[in-house]
What does this fold into?
Amino acid sequence: MNGVTTTVDLRTYLVTDSALSGDRGVLAVIAGAVAGGVGVVQIREKNAPTRDVFDLVLRAAQITAGRSALVVDDRVDVFLAARAAGAAVHGVHVGQSDLPVAAVRDLVGTHNPDGTRALVGLTANTPAHLDAVAAHPPGTVDYLGVGVIRATATKPDHPAPLGVDGFAALAATAPAPCVAIGGIDLPDIPALRDAGAAGAAVVSAICAAPDPEAATRGFATAWGRS
It folds into this structure.
């Protein structure tokens, strides 16, 4: 396995969305998710100015510190700046069109100043993507975000949906733990667990939920029962 053993709980993984969070804001959703037992929070802000993303990460870190891992989507520069500022951030998640994952690992190193693992996650959805990961030295990639499971409006340019069976086929040969993503809702958890998922990344089902804490607790409980 190219990933390394980590104590981070990937099972319930929140990906933030400012539009779906509505007037209450992303930080309120994060607070609810943390209270509900989320293992990882990924800050995903595709269109916000860099300074706004940086400030959001700093404030989110105050909520997640000591309770959940905090990951920054795409923006390696923001992660490094937040870490240098003393924020409790744990890593970055990149896609196939972002910085090459080997370069990301070189930039973030293997550990954060507090001794936690510097996490590097990578989006992957084809056998060729998995082969590329396997060609890197062990420890380059900690986990893979594999999807989409089904069509989702939160990522309009997503590839063809894999479905649970397509996910299972990739997870069976993946060189790192696989977190399913894309249109996932609570009833999907048992099937994804059986398909080999290390976790499920959720956007709408938590960010748009009337009660993000209750929604997160439902996912965390479902994993425990699976």
